[in-house]
Amino acid sequence: MTRPEGPPLSTATLRNLERASGDLASSTVAEMERRLPWFRRMPADQRASVLLLVQNGVAGFVAWLQDLQPAVRLTAEAFRSAPKDISRWVSLRQTVELVRIALELFEQRLPVLAADDAEHAHLTGAVLRYGREIAFSAATSYAAAAEARGAWDARLEALVVDGVVRGDAEESLLSRASALGWEPGAPATVLVGNPPSDDPQQVIYEVRSRAARSGRQVLLSVQGSRLVLVLGGDTEADDVLGRMAQAFGDGAVVAGPTMPSIAEAHRSAADALSGLRAVVGWPAAPRPVRSLDLLPERALAGDPEAEWQLVDRITRPLEEAGGALLETVDTFLEVGGVLEACARKLFVHPNTVRYRLRRATELTGRNANDPRDALVLRIALSVGRLARARGLW
């Protein structure tokens, strides 16, 4: 800051400024109360803090006019530290309103204390320059506070995602997620894959910009060589998973099942991570691929949860349905999907085989005529036989 050009102020004018500083500070706070409804609703101790801030501002201005070097340093320190104390209960927009009112009164009250026109012009210019320094100091302090909050939010977000992966207690997870603005009742889906960059800021930008365009909540964390996302909302429509997959780097992207809330998202994370380990077994897997579509590869990789899901979703329904559905599907797969050969082996009409296969598709969601579904069915039947041999069902 440079001292404003012009003649020095007289000793009498400086004394007038010092005597008027207390009244000016009180008048400024009174004007704030009159013009700002939100300021009137503030507790008395907070309004007193603002009054102290204004008093320091007036005193610093008078000191600056008398001696530039130490006054500039002390004033800058005062205004840089003040917003840190009040930023918890006064927003940046509200601070701008307070500073505007204070400067308006400074411009009205201080120049009239000048002894002549030269001092009047000198004081007017000084108020403008001093107000500019106040505004920049306040903006710098709020920016530093915002950066600190952003860094804390990033650490908290990483803790939440890590808690989802580890399956932390529901209460602590919900409390931390709520602090980040996550809706507790929102469905949650976990996606895992490779990060698009080694730059954390670029990763955050890519993920958040795509989530914002999709209108979804998202929490993210880079854990070593993998990027983990917790995506809020329904994922069955609008290809939201496909759009979010574009935020990942090269390689497979696996999405776990959508859970009713973030408290249960650890199940989605476990399935997604299991799928990421096993997806190498299906080179033609889509991107993203659901962990449920990787059940055969996950079972072959030794995931007991995948084995149980294959039995529960395919083998058990076929057996409990009766009507030789399990035998028909097994035989159809054994003969290479040839309908007539299956009918001859079972001693039934081909239409009977068609009906049973259609019924099996309705029960399991898998069509034995589709190559991928045929693989899922074959492995599910094998896993079911092994589980029965071990007495697991």
UniProtKB/TrEMBL annotation:
Domain PucR C-terminal helix-turn-helix span(s) in chain numbering: 325-382
InterPro entries according to UniProt: CdaR-like_regulators, CdaR_GGDEF, PucR_C-HTH_dom, PucR_C-HTH_sf
All copies of domain CdaR GGDEF-like, residue ranges: 167-278
Pfam family, one: GGDEF_2
Family: Belongs to the CdaR family.
Protein name per its UniProtKB record: Putative transcriptional regulator, PucR family
UniProt organism field: Actinosynnema mirum (strain ATCC 29888 / DSM 43827 / JCM 3225 / NBRC 14064 / NCIMB 13271 / NRRL B-12336 / IMRU 3971 / 101)
Lineage, top ranks: Bacteria, Bacillati, Actinomycetota, Actinomycetes, Pseudonocardiales
